[in-house]
Fold this protein.
Amino acid sequence: MAISNKNKFQFPYIILTSPDWREYELVDSGNGWKMERFGQHLLIRPEAEAVWSPALPESKWAAAHARFVPTPEENGGHWQQYKSLPERWTMRYKNLSFSVQMTASRHVGVFPEQACQWDWIAEQISAAGRPVRVLNLFGYTGLASLAAAQSGARVTHVDASRKVLTWARENQTLSGLEQAPIRWILDDAVKFVQRESRRGVKYDGLILDPPKFGRGPKGEVWEFFRLLPILLEACKKVLAPEPLFVVLTAYAVKASALTLQYALQEIIQSSQGEWSCGEVTLKEKSAGRLLSMAIFARWSRFKPAEFRT
């Protein structure tokens, strides 16, 4: 669902939420923390954006199963577990199934706020009415790739972590998509796209979800502001002559959605289609506040459903 706020720019700035979750909730947030329900389990994680006070009393937060405690000396942190938890458990979003577990990086294998983007990607592919090839860079545990494949696309999924790729393939099995045409590629995103360009490979849709900082499988360093222009220039060369969609999301960077919007405009040559940019958020169950999780920009050949009349 998107809450539109038309402004003086030629494209809408929108706030995205993901209201269709059944097995996830942002229960409450505040004082630099957020409490979330993943299936039947309540987890507390740090959240810098939550500068307000929690809406729920401390007694409600005390019901959590575990809390992630950041510790710089551990180069990440650790989980304090208060109640018994399985090492892994399975969750569902619509027709997708995937596993969740607590990791040393505080992440659990799913970014729930991205569900709205999975739905949007699926809509673009379904509306195409033709074979679609999608490239998903920095694909993590594969949920965007699985949503695209479930809608009929042939997907190339690229990530620099072998462990995460294994996790993504397990999610493919959990979702019953073992026969779906997905290529799982362990590689540095920039190098892979540059090679695809030299091979003349073209994609109808691009999903870009780069981190602020990361490393490739051979130690390649990814820095968002230094390498994003290089990546986008390479992506421009692998876009099909009549592309279907491009979506770019950024987390924890000192940039605005407008920055991403103008960056994407460098690679989209088509005068047709719809542009939008804005924030990806989670809506609290407790007080209904929108917790901003990321910024995004996207273009599609077809008008998004939330703006159709």
User: Anything to note?
Assistant: Helices lie at 58-61, 115-128, 143-150, 162-174, 189-199, 224-238, 257-265. Residues 224-238 form the longest helix (15 residues). The mean pLDDT is 91. The chain is about 25% helix and 35% strand.
